[in-house]
Design goal:
alpha+beta; 13 helices
Length: about 375
């Protein structure tokens, strides 16, 4: 019976290909939009992905978003260093600045300042130049994908950064932030001099906990003694993600698109599969007249729906995966992310879509009278 069900399915090539194509498009829409959404969420935590040495990020306790902070006073760094259980605590700076381009235009850049002595907070990969050269006066390193944005192609070029001189001493590769601005790295001292921000210039304090000390206990001590927020990498990441979902329309917009893909797939499967069942109703009647029970006929319909669902799922996720791979390049403005949980969620959505779409067909087959074949 299962072989007969498959022959019935592929016998009408037009209906079969329409089912597969429609469902593949719906799966592609769900998976692609989901991957783009997750990619944007990852981009919002770009700074956190670049800094791997610290156990704790110290900032104002009301900070909700990694790129929206209230600067701390320099004395807060000494207060944090006085807490027992801390191996080291170093400053970290972030701010926006303007770079004047040779043609008279300007470009907003994201400037990060790292500790001059330890270079903690350094970019993940140095492409050209030496990281130690950042200690030179007016030195900056440019993120690889920002070369074209700033028209910087070789070492030694001079940028006009906030009306100050900045010398390019290297090119690096790092994750961009949510706004995908051109990215520069400097030492903390150079960055503060290039972007005057008043008495309070400290964006974060990066902390490493001594071996054998509990990170959560040290974080609680920092908060209790200084009144500042002390967050692990994961905690800061989830605070940022929660801010993006709650305070922006990104989650709603992508949710509507994914829901639209599900509705499109459901409509296509329901109408096309129901029409397919109607055209093959006489064959089901013959099988019923020959003694096939309702369970057998139900199994045939579900097999047909399942095969179409799996093929459509495979094609749709394959295209979405190809799209995701194509966006994996340094500085990509659209960086899709397709983890395995999204793969499973898409599979579940596909099976639900196919299951709901086959209900009308199942109802028609189950209530079928075998005598109709003799009419």
């Amino acid at each position: 019976m299962l072989a007969i069900a498959m022959r019935m399915l592929v016998g009408d090539r037009g209906k079969y290909l329409s089912l597969v194509a429609g469902l593949s498009f719906a799966v592609l829409l769900i998976a692609q939009q989901g991957a783009i959404f997750l990619g944007l969420i990852r981009m919002s935590t770009g700074i956190l992905q670049n800094v791997a040495q610290a156990d704790l990020w110290i900032t104002d306790k009301h900070t909700k978003f990694i790129q929206e902070i209230r600067p701390l006073h320099d004395k807060d760094l000494d207060r944090v260093r006085s807490i027992p259980g801390i191996a080291w605590a170093v400053p970290f700076f972030q701010a926006r600045a303007l770079v004047d381009l040779p043609d008279g235009a300007f470009k907003t850049v994201q400037l990060y300042g790292i500790d001059r002595a330890t270079l903690v907070g350094q970019p993940p990969t140095v492409i050209e130049g030496r990281l130690e050269d950042l200690r030179s006066p007016d030195a900056v390193m440019v993120e690889e994908s920002s070369r074209a944005k700033l028209n910087v192609w070789k070492l030694g070029q001079v940028l006009k950064l906030n009306d100050r001189r900045a010398v390019v001493v290297g090119f690096i590769r790092a994750k961009l932030g949510f706004e995908s601005n051109a990215t520069l790295y400097a030492t903390y001292d150079n960055a503060v001099r290039m972007v005057p921000v008043g008495r309070e210039s400290l964006s974060f304090v990066l902390v490493k906990v001594k071996p054998g000390h509990d990170v959560a206990r040290v974080a609680a001590d920092i908060t209790g003694r200084t009144g500042l927020g002390a967050y692990t990498h994961d905690q800061m990441q989830w605070r940022t993600i929660d801010f993006i979902l709650r305070e922006t329309g990104i989650g709603i917009n992508f949710g509507v698109t994914v829901l639209l893909g599900f509705i499109v797939g459901l409509a296509i499967v329901t109408t096309t599969f129901y029409q397919f069942t109607l055209e093959n109703l006489r064959y089901f009647a013959v099988l019923a007249a020959m003694g096939a029970g309702r369970a057998t006929l139900t199994g045939m319909v579900l097999l047909q729906a399942g095969v179409v669902g799996l093929i459509g799922f495979g094609i749709g996720t394959g295209l979405a995966s190809a799209f995701t791979i194509s966006t994996r390049k340094p500085g990509a403005e659209l960086a899709a992310y397709f983890p395995w949980p999204l793969f499973l969620i898409t599979l579940a959505a596909t099976m639900i879509c196919v299951g709901l779409g086959s209900l009308l067909s199942l109802r028609r087959v189950v209530t079928l009278e075998p005598a109709m074949v003799f009419k």
